[in-house]
Design brief:
The chain is mainly alpha-helical. 72% of the residues lie in helices and 5% in strands. The protein has a two-stranded antiparallel ribbon. A hairpin with a 5-residue loop joins strand 1 and strand 2.
Amino acid sequence: MHESGEDYIETIYLLKKKKGVVRSIDVANELGFSRPSVSRAVGLLKDQGLLTMDDTGELNLTDEGLKTAKKVYEKHTNLTTFLMMTAGVDAETAETDACRIEHIISPQTFKGIKKYIKEHKED
């Protein structure tokens, strides 16, 4: 999956947790993208079997979409924590950088980061 697809899936997942009901306009507003751009992305995610849209326009992640979203979100949160712990950057900088890194990091490196966090996290 491309970086943009991961961003859309993660955003839908987080909005769903926060609001309960998510429509394309919510995603557009959250990401600052145009409605046509979001509509195109939604169509692609539907074609990939990651997302459904009901008759009212509500977006719902499929089981596979939810699994993907949780993986992306796990990377995002762990990388944010790791950057704050090791680089001493503020939360906003860590969030921004984590969002970039989460799309390219290897599974081996991510596993090592999770291990590091577990071993060094303060109680």
